[in-house]
Design brief:
The protein is mainly alpha-helical. Helix content is 72%, strand content 0%. The protein has 31 helices and no strands. Helix 4 runs parallel beside helix 6, helix 24 runs antiparallel to helix 25 and helix 27 packs antiparallel against helix 28. The chain is globular, with a radius of gyration of 29 Å. It starts with a helix and ends with a helix. 46% of the residues are buried.
Length: 795
């Protein structure tokens, strides 16, 4: 009996010391700088936090891309403009600006010492690997855009860990993530209940107009198959990515609710916790709408891990390193068992896993041939076609595994960097707080940390009302521009629908009933553990997914990664400000960023002008055409982007049919196609365009050298995609045409062989594969083969 009061006194003393350490740490280093410099430093740190929260809230609610190319079917389905690479680059610039503000704040006045996140070594390795891969990538523009964007994500976590110093800032960070996740879940329900039916109705009414007379039946069938599946995607690019995002944020919402329930002393405050719990359950309940079985399995695995961790809580607390080693051992055994089963059986159970096994086998070959530098970020799909077997039905842009993707994109150094991120991050999110006396008798197993409730200054600085207004404007005003539409009804609906849900979720998750509506002054017990489980479940699903390489989902992951690191870290006072030379690193990064962004911005502006002028055609040579001049400006503005010369070549070839003397248009189209191929040497689109132009030139001239050039272009297509039956059909058509014109039996026999090989390859495809030749296509090929045999006999 006597032990209990002592235990309670010790607990209370621990709490008082926790608060005292947190307050005096900030006060101790604050007195070493003048008041005006301390104020300036606080202003800069607050501005940096605001900018990062805007990016965290905005990114999941807008589409993003690294490519300038227009996806034809998407452009015809809607009047909403497609995103451009500028959106991602601008957001990266905001993160770099926030880094500069944080460093400037520490230069003006001392702040807490740098808090290690465990990501530093991995980030350095990935930076080196990224620079190396960009130098050797085929499409350097995609590699640069994608690599810069991804490297800004670990930087986001590192900055948040340095900025977030109070419990209300932790809550502000989590609430910002969850408010956008609530919008994402609402959009998924809106799609499933309303939008998909309307889209299908509109599509089938305009199907012939959308596809045109030369549509590829396989492409049409694949598109309609996905449409019939009706898998909700929200604002992200793929249903599996949306599922991973909602899986992570749903568990985070449960984490916040658990923290509020444990800390609430009054019944009405527990009511807020119940609402937060319902929000988390609602996010997880959205997973079936995405059709992602992997996310639901990952959620189940997360629940199992949570039960085990809670059951073994005492032992884990005393043996953290051993527990982490066991965890990594289980992960290693799982990876080894999966690979072993795949090698033993030649495939994996369930069609979805069997598809991925095909991706990984091809990726292993790709990695073996590009071990040092990789193929470059966003270049995987261009190289995958060289290694894809005919039995593999899908032509994918990524391998659906974040470790395999890092290895293929950035080489062995990139893989090492990704593993270093995982190991360092796992150590940081599970470590024991450095001052263990703070946790004695707390009952929260390392969750009660020396974080103060509020920053210095007036209480209104901690008001969620103020932050909701500021963040709401910061997120939804830029979003208007990024939605890519001038339709006022669409913009009003999107802003009103998403904005109202975001504000409601923000208030429900943050409001309390004190004078200023400040965030609950609690130690957020249990939050770190729940969020760690969410991070684990996200990565588990990403072993068969690619959400970690999609900006919207990845930003939420790295933002929430900062939370357990902060909750398990300790503020240490600094003795002096940073030297001014520390500003050099973010300064140089911003200068390089501006130089890069200016080139992309000028290119995108000229591309927009060119696309608008593409319908206008005047008499005269190509260089006098408005579209030509605009495309030429775009190509010169960005010497790495293959889109301007490729689109110009297509426009010139199409325009040549309307000219009396098309020779100049043919030559310019050929030169632009060659330039596009130089900038993107493994692009099937660029090579196919060159083959089309050279074929047109050969038909116009009848010259044997032009004929041979056209055939060589088709052979190069098969070097890029060797297991493509349609490629052999196209080569056969070109050879047959040239053989008929030149009365060349050798070319006619070669064409016959190409047709035969195309049919043999197609027979290796599965009977239900969408890309398999239709009966009509097979009949057409056999008709052409019979005609060739007759020509051979006649010659």
């Amino acid at each position: 009996m006597s032990a209990k009061p002592g235990h309670a006194d010790q607990n209370a003393a621990g709490k008082r010391r926790a608060a005292r350490v947190g307050v005096t740490a900030s006060e101790r280093h604050a007195v070493s700088a003048p008041a005006d410099l301390r104020l300036a430093g606080r202003v800069l740190s607050t501005a940096a936090l605001f900018l990062l929260l805007v990016i965290i809230g905005l990114r999941p609610l807008v589409a993003g891309t690294y490519d300038s190319a227009v996806i034809g079917i998407s452009a015809r389905l809607t009047d909403v403009n497609q995103p451009t690479p500028l959106a991602n680059l601008v957001m990266d610039g905001v993160i770099l600006l926030a880094a500069a503000l944080v460093v400037a704040a520490r230069v003006l006045a001392p702040g807490p010492r740098y808090r290690r996140t465990g990501l530093e070594i991995g980030a350095i390795l990935l930076t080196i690997a990224g620079v190396l891969s960009c130098a050797f990538a085929g499409n350097k523009r995609l590699a640069i855009n994608g690599t810069i964007d991804w490297l800004c994500l670990p930087l986001l976590t590192i900055l948040l860990v340095q900025i977030v110093q109070t419990r209300w800032q932790v809550r502000l960070l989590v609430v910002t993530v969850l408010a956008s996740a609530a919008v994402q879940a609402a959009e998924c329900w809106n799609q499933s209940l309303y939008e998909f039916a309307e889209t299908r109705r509109d599509y089938f009414e305009r199907k012939e107009q959308i596809w045109g007379p030369d549509a590829d039946p396989a492409q049409v069938e694949l598109f309609e198959h996905r449409m019939r599946a009706a898998e909700a995607t929200g604002y992200l690019e793929h249903s599996n990515v949306t599922a991973g995002y909602l899986l992570l944020t749903g568990i985070a919402a449960v984490a916040l609710a658990a923290g509020r329930w444990r800390a609430a002393a009054l019944p009405y405050r527990r009511g807020f916790a119940v609402v937060g719990l319902l929000l988390g359950i609602g996010m997880c309940a959205t997973l079936p709408l995405t059709g992602s079985y992997g996310s639901m399995a990952a959620l189940g695995a997360g629940v199992v891990v949570l039960i085990v961790v809670r059951w073994a809580d005492g032992w884990i607390e005393q043996h953290r390193k051993q527990a982490l080693l066991i965890g990594w051992g289980v992960v290693g055994l799982g990876i080894g068992a999966t690979v072993g089963l795949g090698l033993a059986r030649g495939t994996l159970p369930h069609p979805s896993l069997a598809f991925r096994w095909q991706y990984w086998k091809a990726s292993a070959q790709m990695f073996a041939e590009h071990p040092l530098a990789g193929v470059g970020r966003e270049n995987f799909g261009r190289h995958y076609l060289q290694y894809k077997r005919i039995e593999s039905p899908e032509e994918v842009a990524n391998p659906h595994n974040f470790l395999v993707q890092a290895a293929c994109a950035w080489g062995v150094l990139g893989l090492a960097g990704m593993v270093a991120l995982l190991v360092g991050g796992s150590l940081a999110v599970t470590r024991r707080p450095q001052d263990s006396t703070l946790n004695e008798g707390s009952g929260f197993r390392g969750q009660e940390l020396p974080l103060t409730a509020h920053l210095e200054g007036p209480p209104w600085r901690n008001s969620p009302l103020l932050w909701a207004l500021a963040l709401g404007l910061g997120i939804f005003i830029p979003r208007l521009a990024l939605l890519g539409s001038t339709n006022s009804d669409y913009l009003t609906w999107e802003t009103g629908f998403a904005g109202s849900i975001w504000l409601i979720a923000f208030f429900v998750l943050s409001l309390e009933s004190d004078r200023y509506g400040a965030f609950l002054d609690d130690p957020l017990p249990g939050v770190a553990m729940f969020i760690n489980v969410g991070l684990f479940a996200f990565l588990l699903q990403d072993t068969i997914n690619f959400a970690l390489f999609v900006p919207g989902a990845a930003t939420a992951f790295f933002a929430l990664l900062a939370v357990p690191i902060v909750l398990r870290a300790q503020l240490k006072p600094a003795t002096r400000p940073l030297p001014r030379i520390a500003l050099a690193a973010p300064g140089l990064a911003l200068i390089a960023y501006v130089a890069l962004t200016v080139a992309v911005w000028r290119c995108q502006a000229a591309l927009s002008t060119a696309r608008a002028a593409a319908g206008a055609l005047t008499a005269g040579v190509p260089r006098e055409q408005p579209a030509y001049r605009a495309y030429e400006r775009a190509a010169k503005a960005d010497a790495l982007d293959p889109t301007p010369p490729l689109e110009l070549s297509r426009w010139l070839l199409a325009a040549s049919g309307r000219m009396d003397q098309p020779g100049d248009f043919y030559r310019e189209a050929r030169d632009m196609a060659i330039e596009a191929r130089r900038r993107d040497p493994f692009s099937l689109s660029a090579q196919r365009q060159l083959a089309a132009v050279l074929g047109q030139i050969a038909r116009a001239s009848g010259d044997i050298r032009d004929c041979e050039s056209a055939l060589n272009a088709h052979r190069r297509l098969l070097e890029i995609y060797p297991q493509n039956p349609q490629g052999f059909v196209e080569l056969a058509e070109a050879a047959a045409e040239m053989g008929a014109v030149l009365h060349d039996k050798a070319r006619l026999r070669a064409a016959l062989d190409h047709y035969t090989h195309a049919l043999e390859l197609d027979n290796l495809r599965g009977p239900n594969e969408i890309r398999r030749f239709t009966d009509q296509q097979r009949a057409g090929i056999r008709t052409q083969m019979a005609r060739l045999q007759e020509l051979i006999r006649e010659n």
